[in-house]
Design brief:
Layout: E1 7-13, E2 17-24, E3 31-40, H1 47-57, E4 66-73, E5 77-78, E6 81-83, E7 90-92, H2 93-100, E8 104-109, H3 110-116, E9 126-130, E10 144-151, E11 155-163, E12 166-171, H4 184-197, H5 208-221, H6 231-239, H7 243-267, E13 273-275, H8 279-282, H9 284-288, H10 292-297, H11 303-306, E14 311-314, H12 319-333
Parallel strand pairs: 1-4, 4-8, 10-13, 13-14
Antiparallel strand pairs: 1-2, 2-3, 5-6, 6-7, 9-14, 10-11, 11-12
Helix pairs in contact: 1-2, 3-12, 4-5, 5-7, 6-7
Length: 334
């Protein structure tokens, strides 16, 4: 049982799903995994109504033991308001706090939460992709700088700076950086995507819909209309030996590696980059056996340095909620 007032409501909200849970901020392992429930964001007109539905269906509606909430959202947080990048929800912190009857609601970017999950990861929660071995330090006092990047419905980008035992998540919209092609094939893909979207960001390629964009561009280059496709159709086709689906996955992984390496250079994240998001566990074998690491390291004069930087795939099923729990603990201790 949690001590009185130690429970916090958590949410990890993307463009497709909203996952809720409770955290015991008085516990060394705050995220209560048995309280995790997910819902489609399309089923609710607002975050407040989705959160109330979670509380009611889990028997915590009107609970006086829950006084604070941390909501990690896939979009930019601007003061007391957040907009979901790939969904119409606009979230007001004061309105949501009043609607749920809470003392405090904190809105954070979802990749700030992903970053804050890093110090709480256990050995079974991640898998090495390359570079020097990485493990959670027994006392993560730093100094460390980590990059975090992950494809899901969109492409999330963030970071974590640890100095003197203090954890500082970096909230960014780095998924919307312009896509830099690295091969003649990628230049042709950019040309096809540019004719459709105008400006092409990294998110146009490295996310679920981005995998479909790559496949369609490759099909158009070959003079073929692939018809409607879903990301799962392409990964299944690649596994079944379809050459164009296989090539789309290869390009996806190579570009993912290239931009993950660019992120390390940009942030000076020599201590490691963490690959997270909904697609990473599903594509882990493809990433491991692709050009991901080669393109990650291929950075000219910095290639030897990049060869040492760990790239770590996060396989924890609820890393965003884990990080939100860490933020709730920090708030409770303040």
């Amino acid at each position: 049982m949690s001590t009185t007032g130690a429970l916090a409501l958590l949410a990890d909200i993307g463009g497709t799903n909203a996952r809720f849970a409770l955290a015991d901020t008085a516990s060394a392992t705050p995220l209560q995994l048995d309280t995790v429930h997910g819902f489609s964001v399309a089923d609710f007109p607002s975050l407040g109504e989705a959160a109330q539905h979670y509380l009611d269906t889990t028997g915590h509606g009107g609970s006086t033991g829950i006084r604070r909430a941390v909501f990690a959202v896939a979009g930019r947080v601007d003061g007391d308001e957040a907009r979901i990048t790939n969904h119409p929800w606009v979230i007001s912190r004061p309105r949501t706090r009043q609607q749920l009857g809470l003392d405090d609601v904190e809105l954070v970017n979802d990749f700030a939460a992903q970053a804050m999950a890093i110090p709480l990861l256990q050995p079974g929660d991640y898998s090495a992709i390359g570079g020097v071995p990485w493990s959670v330090p027994a006392h993560a006092d730093g100094p460390c700088t980590y990059a975090v990047i992950g494809p899901g419905t969109g492409l999330g980008v963030g970071g974590l700076v640890i100095r003197d035992g203090h954890h500082h998540p970096l909230e960014t919209e780095g998924g919307h950086v312009s896509f830099p092609p690295g091969t003649p094939e990628e230049i042709r893909i950019l040309e096809h995507l540019s004719s459709q979207f105008g400006r092409v960001s990294n998110e146009r390629l490295i996310c679920g819909p981005g995998l479909v964009n790559i496949h369609r561009a490759l099909s158009e280059i070959a003079g073929v209309d692939p018809g409607p496709m879903r990301p799962a159709d392409i990964t299944a086709g690649a596994a079944a030996g379809d050459p164009r689906c296989g090539r789309a996955v290869d390009v996806f992984c190579a570009v993912f590696g290239a931009i993950a390496g660019d992120l390390v250079l940009t942030l000076g994240a020599w201590d490691g980059v963490f690959l997270t998001g909904g697609l990473v566990p599903k594509m882990l074998d493809s990433i491991r056996h692709s050009g991901f690491r080669q393109r990650f390291e291929h950075k000219g004069r910095f290639s030897p340095t990049m060869g040492q930087v760990p790239s770590v795939a996060v396989t924890h099923p609820h890393a965003g909620l884990l990080g939100a729990a860490a933020i709730a603990c920090r708030k409770a201790a303040a």
